[in-house]
């Protein structure tokens, strides 16, 4: 999306503002489906946690996607967006048996990553087929907080505990219809990912009534010029060949599943914030904006890089700035960045703001959450209103203190 359009949206809807371009979403979705087009049965389930606005979910339904969900609320959002329950998979972690049972009544695919819950669910509901999340003990991910397949992870049932899974299945007479893994986000090394898939194939051989294998996701997108990203086309070529071979060995055409989130929406999103103040110190020039990690936490939480451009002065001479927020503690979006000259009132654009940005926003410092706009087929839509003070008070009980 060009600077002129982004500036117009900032002028119309104010700042801070999230803007999503569904053309980019469709292009990424088509890219991954094309990469695996030579698999007879494949399915993409969009990871709702990346960006959960109901209108974004409707776009994915239109594209033919399913949904990957991690909470009963995300399942309910998917159903509200019009998804068929059979197109939703539910992969929670650390939730109660009660929540899993409630979700099961909605008719979606259940994915279990805990032996004790598997046994309890199998004893009570042996007629409901479930998927098993396996921990392959393969380290992948660009940050320790998003690497979930290693040996010390809280996610999944260890591949070394497969005999225990089989014992539970035999004792309860439950059906396992899928095997799943997720190694972590920001996968750079395809060979490491493929090594994990071989572990999943070995596990899958031990369950004779499968319908699908879910390979998770975590594909990396570029954050700046020259950045490395997951070569999805090469992965498609190599994994397609191996998956088709496995289906022949298994004696059944299984469905290959993925659950990308960031890969599909990260590059579709831009976050716009207005510069409140330029502050020169003895060593740094700060550009302070009308936002903070309450709206975009990734740089502070994950040390994530978001490219920052000045859309109000894109041809100005470049200078060095540290872009910071208005939260009353260290709140840095980018240090010592080379950006076209910034003056107070300019609008800055934070790129790659589609995934895990608004969905992780908060009301810290009692600040309002920003508005969201979607640009779809050339037309702009306000898909979330900016919060007001009434929203801050909405669920607080204002009691009389004597």
From TrEMBL:
The entry's keywords: Amino-acid biosynthesis, Decarboxylase, Lyase, Lysine biosynthesis, Pyridoxal phosphate
Occurrences of domain Orn/DAP/Arg decarboxylase 2 C-terminal (ranges): 18-354
Required co-factors: pyridoxal 5'-phosphate
Domain spans labelled Orn/DAP/Arg decarboxylase 2 N-terminal: 25-266
UniProt keyword Mitochondrion, yes or no: no
Catalytic activity of the protein: meso-2,6-diaminopimelate + H(+) = L-lysine + CO2
Sites where the protein binds pyridoxal 5'-phosphate: 218, 356
InterPro entries: Ala_racemase/Decarboxylase_C (IPR009006), DAP_deCOOHase_LysA (IPR002986), De-COase2_C (IPR022643), De-COase2_N (IPR022644), Orn/DAP/Arg_de-COase (IPR000183), PLP-binding_barrel (IPR029066)
One Pfam family named in its UniProt record: Orn_DAP_Arg_deC
Active site: 328
Gene Ontology biological process terms, A to Z: lysine biosynthetic process via diaminopimelate
Subunit annotation: Homodimer.
Name of the protein in its database record: Diaminopimelate decarboxylase
Source species: Polaribacter pacificus
